[in-house]
From TrEMBL:
Lineage: Bacteria, Pseudomonadati, Pseudomonadota, Alphaproteobacteria, Sphingomonadales
Key words, A-Z: Transferase
Cited Pfam families: CoA_trans
Gene Ontology terms, MF aspect: CoA-transferase activity
Protein name: Succinyl-CoA:3-ketoacid-CoA transferase
Length: 236
């Protein structure tokens, strides 16, 4: 079996990055972001990137770093709020945006991994989401055709991996990560823990190792809370 383990994030990305590439980056809000790999992409200086991700990070964190360095040319996303830099670059014309309903984005990525070039959905019919896209009538209802999403590279964050690349995700940090693992020509995974072969119960594996090309242990695990909400402690 080929060795999939790499010593550090820079080594895990070596030879994979190039200008104009399409990149998938896992995460939802600040949960499940590939925190260790994104800074290495910034350091590499590749530009004109098309990035497929639910959102573009938050101020100072996640994909925001690649926006700040002007390395992203286009975002394919479902949520663009609460990121002032994203807003500024889009409104100024610096950044292209392909906005998707969130479920449609997830299904486009899943379709890319499953080898399904297109599918039909009712979501977005009659809105700007459907502009320029073919529609069909099924059982008396109009549906819009959406196409798959695939990438040159998928970078994802998992909780645990074994040397074969079998993955487990933790709770909501799973989000878009498993689907993206299947839709990248090459998939690089950063994980919090690397376990010995045979550790996982096969029924508990979320992503089979066949989809994973390179594995590296995370160097950054901040797990920030985007909006911390607290209440006053009741008096004793």
């Amino acid at each position: 079996m080929a060795n999939k383990l790499y010593s550090d994030p820079a080594a895990a990305l070596d030879g994979l990055l190039f200008d104009g590439m399409t990149l998938m980056s896992g995460g939802f809000g600040l949960s499940g972001n590939p925190e260790s790999l994104i800074p290495e992409i910034r350091t590499a200086g590749v530009k004109d990137l098309t990035v497929i991700s639910n959102n573009a990070g938050a101020d100072g964190f996640g994909l925001w770093m690649l926006l700040e360095s002007r390395q992203i040319r286009k975002m394919i996303s479902s949520y663009v709020g609460e990121n002032k830099l994203f807003e500024q670059q889009y409104l100024s014309g610096e950044l292209e945006l392909e906005l998707n309903p969130q479920g449609t984005l997830a299904e486009r990525i899943r379709a890319g991994g499953a080898g399904i070039p297109a599918f039909f959905t009712r979501t977005g019919v009659g809105t700007i989401v459907a502009d320029g896209k073919p529609t069909e009538i099924f059982e008396g209802e109009e549906y819009v055709r959406e196409t798959w999403l695939r990438a040159d590279l998928a970078i994802i964050k998992a909780w645990k991996a074994d040397p074969a690349g079998n993955l487990m995700f933790r709770k909501t940090a799973r989000n878009f990560n498993p689907n993206m693992a299947t839709a990248g020509r090459v998939t690089v995974v950063e994980v919090e823990e690397i376990v010995e072969a045979g550790t996982f119960d096969p029924d508990c594996i979320h992503t089979p190792g066949i989809y994973v090309d390179r594995i590296v242990k995370s160097t950054i695990n901040e797990k920030r809370i985007e909006k911390l909400t607290t209440r006053a402690r009741e008096a004793a």
